[in-house]
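Handoff note, outgoing to incoming analyst
You'll be picking up this chain. Sequence as last confirmed:
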Amino acid sequence: MLQGSYVVNSLLDSCNFFYKYYHVVTDSFFTSIDLAKELLRKGTFMTGTLRKNRAMPSSIKNPTINDNEAKFLRQGQLLLCVYKETRRRKPVRLLSTACTAELNNSGKPKLIEHYNTKMGGVDLADQLVSANVDDRKTMKLWEKVVSNLLQRMVTNAYILYNQNSDAPRLSRLSFLQSIIEDLAQEHLLSCQQRLPNREPNNALIRLTGCSYYTGGMYVGSSGTGTMTGTMTGIGTGGSYYTGRYVGSSGSGTMTETGGSGTTTVACVDKQGKCTDYAREGTCTDPRYTGWVKDNCARTCLCCEYVKQEQVEK
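Most recent structure output, in case you need it:
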């Protein structure tokens, strides 16, 4: 079974349209003689254009025909027609199980008039969808399919809007712009509502208003050690320190480049432990005050040394 035939059968079956003598009008992608016979057995009529590469009698596939001339071929209820309007146009082939082999006053088959009347809605829909299209070239077929579905959804929404709204009608472009703006505003509001409810992660956060150091670690033993790396910070009294701290035996100096005051140095280390920071009598954090270096095994999150112009003696 051809893909077009499968689509028509599946659609009519899902809608429960068989055996109710509906008249289905299709374009050349779906139409075939086998499909017309199958639908006729299921109590459904069909009319549509035929592609030249489909199975059909040779007198219809390769006709000898003049301008503004039509030829018909019938087998039971199955009617085939070929019609050529002018010299510049190719012959048009049609199939129907409901129409008759009659011509109108201008010599055109009534079968073609019926087809144009019913298929005009499809052509109009394609014309509406093609307006204001923001297509992009892509190698991914699914992107084209999704884009076309969205465009048809917007087109149908615009038609329903015109039929059910008493307000002054918007143009299709203004209607499309309003949809984009409303969706963007709704997304922005949902993001703003989610932000305050975010749970804090376990990453260390830079302490606001305290000094901090980056680029180095403090490693020592028995109260001695060396801390290397750039240390910058704004002290509680307004002093600003920048430079490199290199000390031994628990001592070292910083370069002062700001005003005077007491500077709070916060040891924020993602890997170091409090063993070498919270020596007895030096840590001002009440959680660590009085702890000695041998029994302090917790990660140091806020171990502060309060000194003026000199970190520690």
